[in-house]
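Is glutamic acid placement plausible here? Inputs below.
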Amino acid sequence: MNQNKVRTRFAPSPTGFLHIGGLRTALYAYLLAKHEGGDFILRIEDTDQKREVEGATEALQETLKKFGLIWDEFYKQSERLEKYKSAAEKLVRESYAFYCNCKPKNAKVEGFSKELRDPCRDKKLTSGAIKLRVPDGQIVRYHDFVHKKEISWKTDEVYDATLLKSDGFPTYHLAVVVDDTDMKISHIIRGHDWLPSTPIHLLVFDYLVSKRPEIGHLTDILSTETGKKLSKRRDSVFVEQFLEEGYLSEALLNFVLLLGWAPKNNKEMFTLTEMVKSFDINGFQDANPKFFRDKLDWFNGQYIRQLKVGDLNSKFQTLNSKFKALKTETQIEITKLVKDRISKLTDINTLAKFFWETPEVDKSLLGNNYKLHLAKAIEAIENDKDLMEVVKENNFKTGDFFMDLRIAITGSKFTPPINESIEILGKDETLKRLKKVI
Ligand code: GLU
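Reply from A.M.:
I modeled the complex. Tokens:
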């Protein structure tokens, strides 16, 4: 293998759905590699078996495929346990790590405990968990390629992290370094959450190998409502949920691309192929991006307009069985009619519902002259007369007349253009609805 080949990885834990931030990480890792003709690796970090969710790995693979983020190699950490064990034992032999047989503590608590130095570090034990012997009085540093600056820590602030638990399973800290080394990863790109763990990894890298990969930590994606990091509790964050809500994978990917990266020109619309071509490691932005839902809707609308009518029609069919039950020509007519007017696929469910369901008309929505309006409309439709003529002849207010008509036929104030809608719905059905309201 070419020593300088760009190799990146996406390394999710199989704990559930894919977070929007995870999709962004995967995309950037993919683009970084593919722009240089390199390899993109999918590695499942499943060594914390308590947190694992059944089926999550397969679901994740399916989701990545929907976005075209196809990996060149695939690994599962649980299948590589021997590697971690031997690396940890090597570190012990070389005095960079030590055995500890204290009762295991929760990893999070461990990191925050005041005791950074483990009481077992000089006991020369020969079994138990393996922990990192963090040196005193040193500085560990690296240059972050996303933030384009050096980041450093005093080792006096880094704790003796567990590398291998007494049950033989590695912690994330050890597994990530062993894997990134074995898999010849050239660039690590990951979420900002992992920055506090980085000094531990840097030490392990330095003890195990001569050269570390380049490392970059992404910005946090902020909620527009709270200005804080997107949260699972408050915001919609899961990719699968967005797809279900009617966002197209192309639109979501395009939107996510620009959450923390920008091209040199102001180009906004990118297919995956264009992304690969344009991607530039210098385009990462330093400031935390905001998740503007309106912008996502705009992108989605753009991608919906680009779809062929037939393709959009099939998507509607999958989405709505009542739509699917309509005659094919009717489906196509409806699709054409709504194509320019929706921002999400699921909008069809509300915007076009009146085509397959007789609406309940709330009469309080109708104007004062509705009876006259509808009576004249009925007359015109029965005689195939143009509705605009009716307005003129009777001196009706155009807006009021058509609003009454719209509400009577569809039950709603917001619909596709009423003339075209009437045509699709058919004369008989339209008249039936109008008469019912009068
Ligand atoms: N397993 C970590 C995650 O779930 C990966 C962190 C990394 O990329 O190093 O995000």
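Short version: The pocket of glutamic acid is lined by residues 11-13, 45, 176, 190-191, 194 (CB under 6 Å).
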